[in-house]
Amino acid sequence: PGTAGAGTWKAELASPLTASQRTAGQTIRTQRIDTSAGQLRVTAPAGAAPAGVQWQPISLRQTQSGSWQVQSQGQLQGIPLAWVDAFSTDPATAPLAAAGISGDLSLNGRWNLDTTARTPVADLVLERASGDIRLAVVEEETHANVTVVRSQGTVARRADGSVQTPRVPGRGMRARIQNLRLQVQ
Questions:
Q1: Which residue blocks in 38-183 are alpha helix, DSSP H?
Q2: Contact (CB, 8 A) for 29 and 19
């Protein structure tokens, strides 16, 4: 992780992970890679609650034509949105900070991918688990007593290109997210 995620990260498998690889043909004509089911718990620095990933056995197959097929199902639990910036290699280009977004929003999700069947299946869901986001905004009163709210995130850069934290009274404006769901099929 970049310096925004500086500190000790901890990743633990709940049980040993096994993987096998098989090839067929004199020159590799087909290939199959299988893993066992598993669970990974990841804890970020500063004592944040751990996030988790669980998966069913995964199968990757390379056919004689060279194309790959995948079978995978699993779920995500409590993944903090802030990790987007924590894993940015350059804090100056951290996408959430650059957009003026912060907060404690965490996400759950699940996936089911199967490209081995005649009709491929792709079902992906991300949804709010808890928390909210804050938007760095500047409020100003106009002569007509109208409040104008502008985000300063994407334009607040120093001459060297690094992100300049906008000066905002308080801690920004809460988005008050109650429901958030992204589903792709």
A1: 83-86, 95-98
A2: no
* Residue 176 identity: R
93-109 residue pLDDT tens: 788 888 888 889 999 99
In this structure, what token pair is assigned to residue 14?
Answer: 């709940």
What separation in angstroms does the CA of 88 have from each of 4, 9, 45, 109?
8, 15, 15, 21
pTM for the structure as a whole: 0.71
- Strand 173-174: give its sheet, edge to edge: 101-103, 133-135, 173-174
The single residue listed with the structure tokens 């194309």 is: 67
**DSSP label of 121:** E
Name the burial class of residue 138, with classes exposed (0-12), middle (13-18) and buried (19+) by CB atoms within 10 angstroms of its CB: middle
The closest alpha carbon to 168, from 133, 147, 141, 139, belongs to: 139
Taking the CA atoms of 143, 176, 124 and 102 in sequence, report the sign of the dihedral they define. Answer: positive
pLDDT tens digits along 50-109: 899 999 999 999 988 888 999 999 999 999 998 888 877 777 778 888 888 888 999 999
Length of the chain: 185
* DSSP secondary structure code for residue 162 in this structure: P
